[in-house]
Amino acid sequence: MFTALAMQLGPWLDVIVTGGIALVTLAAATVGTIETGNVGIETRWGTVAMQEIQPGLYAAPLASVDQYSTKEIAVLIDNLTPKAADNLFIRHMDVTVYYRVMPGRVAPLVIKYANQSEALADSTHVMGPCYRLVQTLARNAIYQEVAMINSLQVHQQREQISAHVEARLQRELDANDPRTFQVTRVVVRTVVTDPAIEQAIQDAVNQQKRLEAMEIRTKIAQKEAEIRLTEAVGIAKANEAINHSLTPEYLQHEANESLRLFARSGGTATIVLPASMSATPLISIPPAGKVAPAVRE
Asked: Is the pTM here over 0.70, yes or no?
């Protein structure tokens, strides 16, 4: 009976079996959507596929698919206590490092760095590729950069620290995986130093303000001295010019003119001659009873 039935269904048997297998496979397939800015990594029988699934609908028979972000990812590195160049510890430091992985390079990273990826804080189903690796390398870079700066200067050099950490982290990532990671930026969010350091910073600021005030007063005093010197030079030059113009002949001429005018004035009874003038005094005889002697200086 079964033989006769098989003979009757013979032409359709292969179709039925193939269709059944297809239905079972489709039922077991993982179906979903890859969001824009992400890629899917397929794992089948414990093996990661090298071909990344692009954004859109997908079906992965007998496999699981994880989504990995290729957008900018923020890595929070909090509660750091690095030691500065002067061997003083920073009490609390928070930094955020932003990075991304180039599309087409996610699958090799997932294979190479197993268990280094982590679900992102803002999504429960999207993974940050090599999140933990970047976090570890970034923490080391921060400690190394802060160790090159005095604790009193950490507050004032946040931008410098950020730039140097970004460059150092990029070099370390490129050394093992060139053209794979891009460190987009680094932000030093919080720096809290020891209270003694804070007081030292405040004292340093106050000293700097006093120094600036003293420098301003010094500049004012220098400028006033320059003005007085300029005035003194001008007066000296004027006196020198006058002295050069007062020749003996000129002085004698002026004295003669003064005597001439003095002698012509009416009622003159006294002539005053300079002590250095060699001249015979001219005495005018006043009326009787009123004799006034000549005075020589």
From this structure: no
